[in-house]
Known about the structure:
Blueprint: H1 6-13, E1 27-41, E2 46-59, E3 63-69, E4 74-75, E5 80-83, E6 89-90, E7 92-98, E8 103-112, E9 117-128, E10 134-140, E11 146-152, E12 175-182, E13 186-189, E14 193-198, E15 204-209, E16 222-225, E17 228-231, E18 240-245, H2 254-271, E19 279-285, E20 293-295, E21 298-302, H3 303-306, H4 315-334, H5 343-361, H6 367-382, H7 402-419, H8 421-434, H9 442-457, H10 466-474, E22 480-487, E23 492-499, E24 517-519, E25 521-523, E26 536-538, E27 540-541, E28 545-546, E29 549-552, E30 561-563, E31 572-575, H11 577-588, H12 597-612, H13 618-626, H14 634-651, H15 657-676, H16 690-701, H17 705-716, H18 727-740, H19 743-755, H20 759-769, H21 775-787, H22 793-805, H23 810-819, H24 821-827, H25 832-843, H26 849-863, H27 869-889, H28 891-902
Parallel strand pairs: 1-12, 18-19, 19-21, 22-31
Antiparallel strand pairs: 1-2, 2-9, 3-8, 4-9, 5-6, 5-9, 7-8, 10-11, 11-16, 12-15, 13-16, 14-15, 17-18, 20-21, 22-23, 23-29, 24-26, 25-30, 27-28
Helix pairs in contact: 2-4, 2-5, 4-5, 5-6, 5-7, 6-7, 6-12, 6-14, 7-8, 8-9, 11-13, 12-13, 12-14, 13-28, 14-16, 15-16, 15-28, 16-18, 17-18, 18-20, 19-20, 20-22, 21-22, 22-23, 22-25, 25-27, 26-27
The protein binds 2-acetamido-2-deoxy-beta-D-glucopyranose (8 copies).
One 2-acetamido-2-deoxy-beta-D-glucopyranose is lined by residues 39, 41, 47-48.
Amino acid sequence: MIKLPWYLIVLHLCLPIGGTGAAASNLRPLHYNLSLLTEVEPLKLSGNFSGEVVIRLRVWRETRTIILSCNGLQVGENVLLVRRNTGGRVTVRKMWQARSVHQLGIVFNSMLWLGEEYTLVVPFSGQLSRASGYFVGGYMDSRHHQQWIAVTQLAPNLANTVFPCFENRTFLAPFILNLAHPRGTNAVSNMRVLKTSDHEKDDYIWTTFQQTPAMSVQKLAFSINRFTNRTSAEIPKGPALTTWLRPKIADQGDYAISITSQIIVFFISLFGKPYPAMKIDQLVLPDTAYQSHEHLGLVSYPEAAFLYSAQRSTTRAKQQVASHVAHEFAHHWLSDLENAALYWLHNGLSDYVSGFAVDNVEPAWRFHELSMVRQALGVLVKDSKGSAQPMSLAYASMSSDTQANQKSALLFRMLHSLIGTQAFVNALRLYLHRSHKGSSFLQACLWHTLQEESDNQMSLRQDIKVSQLMDSWTMQPGYPLIRVVRNYDTNEVTVSQERFLRNPGKLMQKRQQCWWVPLTFATAGIDSFVSTLPSEWLTCQGRQSASPLILNEVAQPDKWVVFNLRLATPCRVTYDERNWQLIGNALSGPNASSIDRFTRAQLISDVLNLAGAGVVTYDLALNFLRHLRNEDEFIVWQAADKYLEWLHRTLRQTTIISTFKGFMKDLMQTKFDELFKRDGPAAENGNITELMVIVLQLSCRTDLESCAEFALKEFASLTLETNRIPVDLSETIYCTAIQFGTEADWTLLRRLYTRSNVSEERRILLSAMACSRENWALEKLLNLAFAGRYMPKNDVLLIFSAVAQNPLGYNLAKKYLVDNIKAIIKLYGSNTNELAQLVTVLMKEVTTEEELNALRMFMRTDLQNLPGFETAFRRILELGEDNIAWHTRQYHNLLAAVCNITGSIEPQCIY
Ligand SMILES: *[C@@H]1O[C@H](CO)[C@@H](O)[C@H](O)[C@H]1NC(C)=O
Ligand SMILES: *[C@@H]1O[C@H](CO)[C@@H](O)[C@H](O)[C@H]1NC(C)=O
Ligand SMILES: *[C@@H]1O[C@H](CO)[C@@H](O)[C@H](O)[C@H]1NC(C)=O
Ligand SMILES: *[C@@H]1O[C@H](CO)[C@@H](O)[C@H](O)[C@H]1NC(C)=O
Ligand SMILES: *[C@@H]1O[C@H](CO)[C@@H](O)[C@H](O)[C@H]1NC(C)=O
Ligand SMILES: *[C@@H]1O[C@H](CO)[C@@H](O)[C@H](O)[C@H]1NC(C)=O
Ligand SMILES: *[C@@H]1O[C@H](CO)[C@@H](O)[C@H](O)[C@H]1NC(C)=O
Ligand SMILES: *[C@@H]1O[C@H](CO)[C@@H](O)[C@H](O)[C@H]1NC(C)=O
């Protein structure tokens, strides 16, 4: 093989797809002119559209047939094809629609000539629906009149439900869009309005938009609405920014609108590249079936992700708004690189860099690191399932594959920590500069660019290659468990790796896997938590052979060692027993904070999850939980809480639950007193910290008496008119009060819910109402969830899972779903993903074979025929199976440990 100089390789890897692939299709669209009339029946929230698409195309291979992508549309008879340079008309012989493959074929009487341009005109019509790319949503305006909004979401593959087109993403063409819509409504799209003109119907007008740059059909977006608009001040060298929202809640958009401009300015400077469009419209949607999405010149958000009320939203909600907006905008620069198969890569990168933007607009939060560690704690749990998929296989399912996107972000964080900021930012800019639309080599191009910059800065060890490193993390499922075993006589440390599985018995064909793992560590007295530059690496000879590494002189035998500082690499770490003890001693001593807070978060999360998988004992895990008594960092508590929440739920039908709660009460009492037994109610002390939020939640969940007292006292002050309960604490306070409360209390919340116009407050009230111990209340709530057309689907899910997680509500929720499944399927318009989430909620609570079989049966009979349910089926079942496996293998270990640590003499502890 001829060896190419390196620069040729790099150039090749960054080239777009050339002419070679094009032979695969006969025709290429050059230009679209789409005209569409939208008619809505406001009372039914349904409607139709009809129109005509004029496609200019070029023939790449002689053919008689034009095949367009077309899904659920009616196509008119008057299809017209004109040869452009002669003006001659080509007559249609016949047309066919292959509905299952979403194709429309038009066969002509004569051949279309190679290289010639033709103009094709296709009339069509269709129905607005939630299952398609163009749908109607409804809401009540401030005068309680019903209003509607029509909006598109063509990505990833629904453009063909709105007009016949060439769906192939590599086909880029400019669009002219003409929308006919009722007078008095606004039409918004990717581009600025060019002109408006009269329609033949008096009560309609035409809006014509400027021509878009060449883009794929999935990027097209438009909406017809009666929103109000807010125009932002001019952004230097940036696009003109307008935000569209419902008039009634427009003031809640102020926060997001105010940071949007700053975020855009930040990214222009970070990426060293101007914003890719002249204007940007933000569309804030009441109930939508979809997540946020950014299109060229138009971003859409669900209201819950954009709105913030200074009085009635939590601090957490504010952070989510900022991070959400930042994420959408980061994506604008990267999404220009149209490549669906790499969606996880670009989305992860956007996710990672968006944190910098948030730190830039809200420096006091120190948000970025914190949110990444929080994300890591979640990913480590989800990615430990036996069914975990390699990220690189995550299909372009847009936001639905959050798991892959989140893991991808963590890997960029890891890489950043390895090569340093200078190299990382330089590489990012260079990548945007080099990469081309439609390239299929983007992934390799990105790794090469990062490699080059890291070589320039000499930041990676010579034998470590970025692509090899990243491929080992992106192309394999799961992540490693790092085993650290110290020999206290020879002072050697052996470090090895294996895949971590939460249910280790499950995976039949245990394939050996190997990851390239940077190793950082610290020991007592050597304060090295600031730097995350690795001192050593676990390497792989070939993809599958992982050999252990032996380190010398890491620490003195009587000193602790911890690995993976600041949780920089998304993996779990376990130690030999003595080292665990040494760490435990350090955590309970006065110098606990000499171990950095993110590392402490990893330690507690690891020890609990490792106990669950049988890697360490529950005796050890419970001892580590006790160290929380000294813990003042919210993130460490949160790391524990993630596991404790599950433990609480899975234990609630068992005999150990009261003893376990006794252990937890003992743990929580000191902390609770410290934070809440101050002078006067917490509300008047001003600052509510995140630590207070989580401690209150855990205390009340374990039925700590003083917590219930506190909650009831605070709740007593609540009336319809005045609410002095701190918003951040309100969820726990309401929920606890409702558990002990009367019908009047429940009705009060119900009224507050009806009145509230802040979506987060409404969600808090809904989940609190589900804490009731009364059947009638839970039934009412389920009816509320599924009866109303205006209930956002996210809130339906919220209610349903809150009821199912209530020990008294599980059977009720299950019965409701089973009894009403036909109607519910209809309500969801066969949106399988959203429906599957409801079953997932039930499956998460399963602890016995019997319950598992009942649910399996239900899915088989009632859901099997939903499109795409087959893949969800296995994933859902696994949740129940893993729970059952835990009960079979680990429950008695936990029982023994709880009995041991509490010294309980309850009957279940004496055997
Ligand atoms: C899209 O078009 C390209 C170039 O013509 C071709 O290589 C590719 O196979 C097409 N993709 C699909 C999904 O048809
Ligand atoms: C687009 O098509 C409509 C009719 O389908 C036509 O009236 C209009 O002139 C066309 N616009 C352009 C720029 O070709
Ligand atoms: C939409 O079309 C259906 C059938 O084609 C018709 O029954 C209905 O009235 C139409 N709706 C509107 C709003 O035009
Ligand atoms: C915003 O609304 C006002 C008043 O309805 C209108 O005059 C203006 O053109 C709108 N702005 C944009 C960018 O459409
Ligand atoms: C939203 O609700 C609050 C409290 O119920 C009320 O004071 C406020 O006027 C409402 N805002 C709008 C725009 O209706
Ligand atoms: C705590 O740290 C201080 C200063 O580093 C050290 O002098 C002391 O011995 C440490 N205490 C323990 C119990 O390790
Ligand atoms: C609340 O926090 C702010 C800033 O974090 C601080 O300046 C203020 O003193 C705190 N107030 C109270 C009552 O603790
Ligand atoms: C009880 O806990 C202690 C200390 O954690 C441990 O040494 C002992 O082995 C445990 N006993 C049992 C029966 O698990």
